[in-house]
Structures are given as C-alpha cells and as structure tokens.
Amino acid sequence: MALREYVLDMFNLRKDRTGFFRVAPDAVPVISQARALEVFDVLKNMDNIAYGYTDDGGYARTHLMCRNLFGAGLVPEKAWAFETDNRELIVKFPHGEQTWWFHVAPVLNVDDGKGGYVQMVFDPSLFDGPVTLKEWGDIMQAAPDQIFTAPCGKAPAKYTGDYTPYHRTGWATDTAAIKVMDEYVQLQNEQGFMPSVFPSDMRNAANDERWNVQPADAKKTGGQPCRNQKA
Amino acid sequence: MPESKGVIRKIVERDGGFKVSFPNHSGYFSVAEGESRENLMARLRDAAQTGATITFRFDARLNITDIF
Questions:
Q1: Where are the beta strands (DSSP E) in chain A?
Q2: What CATH code is assigned to A3-195?
Q3: Interchain contact, A98 vs B60, CB within 8 Å
Q4: To which H or E segment does residue A141 belong?
Q5: Architecture of domain B3-67
Q6: Nearest to A119 by CA among A148, A86, A83
C-alpha cells in the first residue's frame, strides 16, 4: 500500500460511508446468471435515470441504481474506471466518441456456474446486459490497472469520495443524485438522445441458449443468433 | 440549461481543442462556440490557476455557455 493510501486509511480520511447503504438481513450476496439478467432489465427500465445521456452523470445513475439494488435485497459494490495521465477513458459509440475522466457503475457477484462467482458490472448506459470488469474496461479502452471495485460507501483506492471520486455520500446525496438525473432526463428527452449500447457476452449467451431450444425458429432466419434481443 | 459549480480539476489543450474537467463531473466539458469563447476560456484558465470555485451553465453537449 502506498504511503498516501496508508495515511488516508489510518486517519479515516476516506470517511467510511457504508452506513448510508443498509444491507438487508436476508440479502443475497451472489445471484444466478438468469437472475442477473432479470436484475439488469429492472435497472435498465428505471425511467428516472438518463441512460441515453452519457456525457455525464454516471455517479448519480450508479447511486440511484445501488439504492434500488439494496432495496431488492442485493449487495452491490461499485466499479470505478479512471483515466491516467496518458490514457483517457474513451468510448466509441456509433453516434460519436465519449471521453470521461472517470466512470462508475454498480457491481454484483454472479454465480460463475463452476462453484464460484464473478464480479459483473451492471451498466445500462453502455451495455445490454451484465459484463465482466474486463468487458467494461475494454469498451472504455481502459487497462486493468485503471479499474477498481469498492463497496458502496467506501472510496476507491487513491480517492476520498464514494459518490464521485472526491465527494462522499451524505444525507443530501439521494436528493442530489435525483436532481442530476432529473436534469439529464430532461436534456435526454429534449435532444432525443436514445441509449446506444454494446452487446454483453452474458446477454448473447442467454440469447444463444434461447435460440438453441427453438431450432424451428432458428431455421427461418438462417440459424443466426438474434443479437441484442430482450431477455 | 443545467448549472453547476466546482473547482477546475484539469484543463487539456491539445490540437486546438479545449477540454476542462471537474471533480464532481465525470465528463469533459468544452466551451461553446461564439463571440465569448475566448473570454470563457481565459476565465477558465485563470480559475484553474487560482483554484477558484466557479459557477457555470452548460448545454446538452457539456459546452460551457456562461460563467457567473
């Protein structure tokens, strides 16, 4: 641990805010892949979140999504991506390039089908389903050392905030996040911005499985898996 | 148009482009085209040097249109 991080922890300068995120007594720490897809779709359909407005606001989106996930008896953490001095976070959307200095999204533990679990990122502003940290980083052209995870209420390494990298969750954070999203939903609607997302491997695999149990339908369209189909 | 305020984190001037970031926003902001562009950029450079908190208004594409 670097000296600076050691000092931050020693004097609690990161100010642990996990108390603002109550974990339900019967919370589920790991969910199945099928449940993960369902949860993703619930998040994606939150109409108070501007998923189509990607210029800014990931911190507010993530805060509100995490509130929803805790309320559903889950235990989200946050995935953080940061630019470096010589490597910005750049997403090449079909409609244009997006540059961020940081990005954040909820993370849940998802059963890997092999007796363990994998951390998956739930980011409906970028993908059509849950993705691994690597898929998430790759789409932003981020190297693995630019990606971090931290529990809700705890700042990622080298930073002091858990809401944004320099702002901690407090009593007014829910209101602040809702206000940001209200403004961005308005911008999104005024400008006609629509979510433009990339395919997730998990979603594709689920769609392929569905396709496999419907061979007759597969024949009709030449047997190609239907990408980006809603689960 | 939304308003925000903050201390400038970083200004990137490269290949004729001008981008500015703030600790409380993930996206990079630019400066709206127009007569006041040079003036706005100068004020942003000054604020970055002094560490002053600025209040600003921006459009849907994160172009800063006014500084108060």
A1: 30-31, 77-82, 89-93, 96-100, 102-111, 117-121, 131-132, 147-151
A2: 3.10.620.30
A3: no
A4: none
A5: Beta Barrel (2.40)
A6: A148
Query: Does A178 reach chain B within 8 Å, measured CB to CB?
Result: no
CB of A159 within 8 Å of a chain B CB? The answer is no
Decide if pLDDT at A54 tops 90.
yes
pLDDT tens, residue by residue, A90-148: 999 988 899 999 999 999 999 999 999 999 999 999 999 999 999 999 999 999 999 99
Cα–Cα distances in angstroms (integers) from residue A39 to residues A34, A42, A180, A203, B27, in the given order: 9, 5, 23, 12, 27
Domain ranges of chain A: 3-195, 199-231
Which residues of A are less than 8 Å from B3 in CB distance? none
Cβ of residue B7 closer than 8 Å to a chain A Cβ = no
Query: Which residues of chain B lie closer than 8 angstroms to A59, CB-CB?
Result: 26
Report which residue type is found at A153: G
Which pLDDT band holds residue B1 (cuts at 50, 70, 90)? confident
* Side chain identity at residue B55, one-letter code: T
> Is B10 an 8 Å CB contact of chain A?
yes
Mean per-residue pLDDT over chain A, rounded? 88
Contact (CB<8Å) A99/B19: yes
Produce one character per residue of A177-194: b if its CB has 16 or more CB atoms within 10 Å, e if not.
bbebbebbbebbeeeebe
CB contacts of A100 in chain B (<8 Å) are 26-28
Q: Are strands A117-121 and A102-111 parallel, antiparallel or unpaired?
A: antiparallel
Complex prediction ipTM: 0.94
